[in-house]
Amino acid sequence: MTSPLIAPSVLAADFANLQRDVEMLNASEADWIHVDIMDGVFVPNISFGLPVTAAINKHAQKPLDVHLMIVQPERYLAAFRDAGAEVLTVHYEACPHLHRTIQQIKDLGAKAGVALNPHTPVSVLEDIIADLDLVLIMSVNPGFGGQKFIERTYERVRQAAALIEKQGSQAVIEIDGGVNQVNAPLLYHAGARALVAGSFVFNAQDPVETIAQLKKVW
At which positions is substrate bound (predicted)? Predict the structure, then answer.
């Protein structure tokens, strides 16, 4: 067993000091930098888009883990790849032609992920899981940071882990929403191997130490 990948979400960073916060993540034990893209249509909030992603990438020394909470993500995949995305995750609920969209991501040379909203059954991934690098399970309703963790997430992680094993997939399970030092070890033991943490990291007195502690949960 290995320690989890930690992907702090810059949605919780100080946007007026984004370069400073990205440099803090560079100096930390964070593995990825999680970038939440929201369009105000798929989710009831707007975050930031391509120019800010490119600006983050300019200073980042860690891979950008870009989570597209947008409608018609296939229209923007190449642009986000050009802006620095190394992992591109789309929502199952936003992709009527999911297999084609995943192929598009792979053709761009990025890792391909699919995110599931809390109400979407894990079983919908049965026919695509073998092609995925990442399964992102939302542990809050997407759209806003700082929400309360949904307890049923543990069972969903176990279901995803069983599906991955059954299909011989190499996909990593990532959790996004309400991750903290209490639920992180439970998520890890259920099968999660990547943890997104936003306000828990950026609101901490010592974000670098908080990231270091999350790396030790296994």
Answer: 9, 67, 143-146, 176-178, 198-199
